[in-house]
Structures are given as structure tokens and as C-alpha cells.
Amino acid sequence: MEIILKQDITGLGYKNDLVTVKNGYARNYLIPKGMAVLATESNKKALAEIKKQQAYKEEKIKKEAETLAEALKDTVLTIGVKASSTGKIFGSVNNIMVANAIKEQKNLEIDRKKIVVNDEHIKEVGKYKAVVKLHKEIQVEIDLDVKAE
Questions:
Q1: What's residue 59's pLDDT?
Q2: 102 and 56 assigned to the same domain
């Protein structure tokens, strides 16, 4: 029996997949629990429309990420921190500070969770690199210049 999954089911498939299962499994478990619907012609047409809309939304998100990546490309962020005379920072530079520096210097709003600082936390003055993951396929490497104030 062909069914369309309404949610991810381990070992069977993902949401909006068209799968074939045994009749009893579909009639007695998946359909009554709301995990699947019968794959009738009308449901197949609705599924095709849903997949088309998802592809359009995904393409739009990817284009926005590409424009952000272009704006961040070859960026050198200067981050001023309080440090000792030996160059040790009081505290550390983390992804929150990098996100704030991007907002101040480039006027771009980027979620701090998308920023990965290579050395986890920067504890000394110097030059470092950070990666901004804008999309599952698009990421940009930016240079950080940490200076004592």
C-alpha cells in the first residue's frame, strides 16, 4: 500500500515521502495515529505542490545567504578588548563579540549561533579566523584582528 508520511519515522522515511508499506501496518498503525495518509491521486497532487513550494522557499533562503556571504567576503573585523601589557585578554573573545562587531562595522545582523570561532575562545591579542555558517552549503571565513584598547 502506498502512503504519504506526515512526519519523520525512523527506518521508514521522512516527512512528505511517498513510501510503500504492508496494508496492515498502514491501516492499523500509521493512518490511525496520524503519521500518514493514503496516497490517492488528490493527495499525490497536493504533495507535489507542497514539494514545489518547499523548493522555492529553500532557493530563496539560499539566495539571501549568498548575498550575505558576498557582503562578508574578505572582511577583517577589528575587535578592541581590555588586555594586560603582555597581551593577555581580561576575559575572552567569543562568538557574541564577533556578532556585535559585524553589526557595528558592517551593519549586518547575524545570529551568534552561526558564528564559529576557530580557537573556541580567544584569550590573547592577535589575528584569528572565524567561520560564519549562513546556510548548510554556504559558509564564509572572516579575519579577526583582536587589539588591546
A1: 92
A2: no
Please say which residue of 63, 91, 109 terminates a domain: 63
Which parts of the chain register pLDDT below 70? Answer: 119-120
Q: Which of 63, 88, 111 delimits the end of a domain?
A: 63
- The secondary structure of the chain, three-state, reads CEEEECCCECCCECCCCEEECCHHHHHHHHCCCCCEEECCHHHHHHHHHHHHHHHHHHHHHHHHHHHHHHHHCCCEEEEEECECCCCEEEEEECHHHHHHHHHHHHCCCCCHHHEEECCCCEEECEEEEEEEECCCCCEEEEEEEEEEC
pLDDT of residue 93: 87
Tell me the pLDDT tens digit for each residue of 91-132.
Answer: 888 889 999 999 998 888 898 888 988 766 788 888 999 999
CATH number at residue 33: 3.40.5.10
What range does the domain containing 35 cover? 2-63
Residue 106 confidence (pLDDT): 87
